[in-house]
Design brief:
The complex is a heterodimer of chains A (about 290) and B (about 260). Chain A is built from 9 helices and 13 strands. Chain A is of the alpha/beta class and about 290 residues long. In chain A, strands 5-6-7-3-8-9 form a 6-stranded mixed sheet, sandwiched between helices. In chain A, strands 11-12-10-13 form a 4-stranded antiparallel sheet, with helices on both faces. In chain A, helix 2 packs antiparallel against helix 3 and helix 3 packs antiparallel against helix 4. Chain B has about 260 residues and is mainly α. Helices cover about 75% and strands about 0% of the residues of chain B. In chain B, helix 1 packs antiparallel against helix 5, helix 5 runs parallel beside helix 9 and helix 5 packs antiparallel against helix 10. The two termini of chain B are about 20 Å apart. The chains are: A alpha/beta (about 290), B mainly alpha (about 260). Chains A and B meet through helix 2 of A and helix 1 and helix 7 of B.
Chain lengths: ~290, ~260
């Protein structure tokens, strides 16, 4: 079942074409990560999904509705800037949310605040960026939502807390769906079932991590060999040796057939794949 | 949601109330000294332009000796009326502009509908502004009764209607400034420009009707002409229009 469906989305900021025909499908119960460098259009896409921004064209369906506002109570969102009311303390923030947010579990929020070891009665205004993030996450995770959307949720957190947060996000999957943006590849590898990679307003890859690892390969050629352009996504030289990124078993088979014994194949991790797609600006999802 | 909005506004509301009570107490406390202050000034000492502005000083002094005139002119006509647009500005300007500037608007709009967010915030502000003006218009009743002043209490409902209605108009206007601004500075600057502009334009004869201060001070009520219903109706219609315009803009805004 598809929980979020985005089709041919276009969003301009005056003359800047921020999202260029982006399409995305998020399956129920999955952790779906949108990866991309800064300015790729990840946050803009998410804001369009939430109805905070109005796209110039394209279709958006969230939890079965084409109007995000109608299902907003079933969504919990953590924005890039985790700003909450600075005059409140965490305990008062929980009370505030209890009155305002539907399906909010105050005891769970307080338990998370304790788990993060946040000072319960200090003003939020005195908190560091990391503490504000932890508080925002406590409030967001205490919502009994069907869809959780996190925009760079671990930015500014120390490694211990980051792992704790990633575990919490991972635990949500199954019953709930998670849409998650990040540019930290190692953490995406830890928790995401599916990945969409965005570059310059376009989705250049959709798929699950296993599929990505299986399909993307490095092919290292003999120094005299020129990589065949028709079968490779991109090529470069590493220490004078030609290296190509090949997508799919078919293309790999062709390369191996053309240069038997003169190439060898190496696996790629997500970071390699991400770098190849970002640098090469290639699209393998269409 | 209404309770949450009241929590956000509580400090501003309490500070405004305490400042205004202090002003009212000082107005009442100065009452016995009016004779001394004005009596010690001879006619010749008063410059002509002041005489033009105040009218005949002797008549003014005679009027000020009357409790009713003193209370109306010094509280409603001089102090409260000047604070009405300022109170509206202090209450209205941060309602949306602060949420937008601080980014907390994202929290609100992804947890509730725009309809609920806009109207609960706007109506809470309108209610608090109205209640403050209602209390500040009625408070002199209790003080003057306690002091045994000779005041025409029948005028008070009229004073309340005109103060609350004028204050609501200013609130609605400043709320629009708050909705359309991405920071808190612009609505404050625009609000101050409106306050000064309103008084300035009112000095020009053809635009005298734009000066809301005589209306908000309840001058027609004091002069026995009753509530200026035409003006009240026009301001109510304008306030509703401004609130609806704010809603129209808020609905279409991107955050």
């Amino acid at each position: 079942m598809i929980v979020v469906k985005v089709g041919d989305l276009h969003k301009y900021y005056r003359n800047v074409h921020a999202v260029r025909g982006g399409s995305l499908e998020v399956e129920k119960g999955s952790v779906h990560a949108i990866l991309g460098p800064n300015g790729a259009g990840k946050t803009t896409t998410i804001k369009c999904i939430l109805g905070l921004l109005r796209p110039q064209s394209g279709e958006i369906h969230v939890l079965g509705s084409s109007k995000p506002e109608k299902v907003i109570s079933k969504i919990s969102y953590v924005p890039e800037a985790k700003e909450f009311y600075e005059f409140l303390s965490p305990v008062k923030a929980v009370r505030f949310c209890e009155k305002f947010v539907e399906h909010f579990d105050p005891s769970k929020a307080l338990q998370l605040i304790k788990e993060f070891k946040l000072p319960e009665n200090a003003k939020i205004g005195t908190f560091s960026h990391g503490m504000k993030t932890q508080l925002y996450l406590s409030l967001a995770l205490a919502q009994n939502a069907e869809l959780f959307i996190f925009d760079e949720p671990t930015w500014g957190l120390d490694p211990v807390v980051r792992n704790l947060v990633l575990e919490m996000i991972r635990d949500l999957a199954g019953d709930r769906t998670v849409l998650y943006t990040s540019h930290i590849l190692s953490e995406v590898e830890k928790i995401a079932d599916k990945v969409s990679i965005m570059v310059q307003g376009r989705f250049v890859f959709h798929g699950d991590l296993e599929e990505a690892r299986k399909n993307f390969k490095y092919v290292i050629f003999d120094p005299q060999v020129e990589p065949p352009k028709e079968f490779v996504l991109m090529s470069f030289k590493r220490g004078g040796v030609p290296v190509a990124v090949v997508y799919g078993e078919e293309n790999l088979g062709e390369v191996l057939r053309l240069y038997p014994g003169r190439v060898h194949v190496e696996p790629m991790n997500l970071e390699d794949i991400f770098m190849a797609l970002v640098r090469g600006d290639v699209n393998v999802s269409e | 949601m209404l309770v949450n909005e009241m929590i956000k506004m509580r400090i501003r509301t309490v500070v405004i109330f305490l400042v205004m009570v202090a002003v009212l107490i000082s107005v009442v406390a100065l009452r016995p000294f009016v004779d001394q202050i004005f009596g010690s000034i001879s006619q010749e000492q008063i410059p002509n332009f002041v005489k033009k502005l105040m009218g005949d000083p002797q008549t003014l002094l005679e009027n000020l000796k009357k409790d009713d005139y003193y209370l109306w002119s010094q509280w409603f006509g001089k102090n409260l009326v000047q604070f009405i647009p300022l109170i509206a500005l202090v209450i209205a300007f941060p309602i949306f502009a602060r949420e937008i500037e601080h980014g907390t608007i994202h929290y609100l709009l992804t947890r509730s509908t725009r309809l609920r967010v806009y109207w609960s915030k706007s109506l809470t502000g309108l209610l608090i502004n109205g209640l403050l003006l209602l209390i500040l218009s009625i408070l002199p009743v209790f003080i003057t009764l306690a002091l045994g002043w000779d005041v025409n209490y029948q005028n008070f409902p009229g004073y309340v209607v005109q103060a609350v209605c004028g204050g609501s108009f200013f609130f609605s206007l400043y709320l629009v400034f708050s909705v359309v601004s991405k920071d808190q500075v612009k609505p404050i600057v625009l609000g101050i420009v409106v306050m000064i502009g309103d008084a300035f334009l009112g000095m020009l004869k053809p635009l005298r009707f734009l000066n809301l201060y005589p209306y908000m001070s309840g001058s027609s009520v004091y002069l026995g002409l009753g509530v200026d219903w035409r003006y009240t109706f026009a301001l109510t219609v304008l306030s509703v229009f401004l609130l609806l315009f704010g809603w129209y803009y808020f609905q279409r805004s991107e955050y």
